Amino acid sequence: MRFKKICNEAVCSFTITANGPLMIADGSSNRTDPSKPDTCFLTGTVDGERVYVIPGSSIKGVVRGYVEDMLGKEKTEMLFGSEKPAIKSKVSFYDAFADMSTVKTDIRYNTAISAIGQNAVNGSLNSVEALVKGSFPAKLTVKNAEEKELLYILKALRALDTGELCIGGRKSRGYGLVNINDFSLRLFGGYDNDLKPVMLAEFDDVRTAISSLESGALSLHTEVLYE
Question: Which pTM value belongs to this model?
Answer without folding.
Answer: 0.86
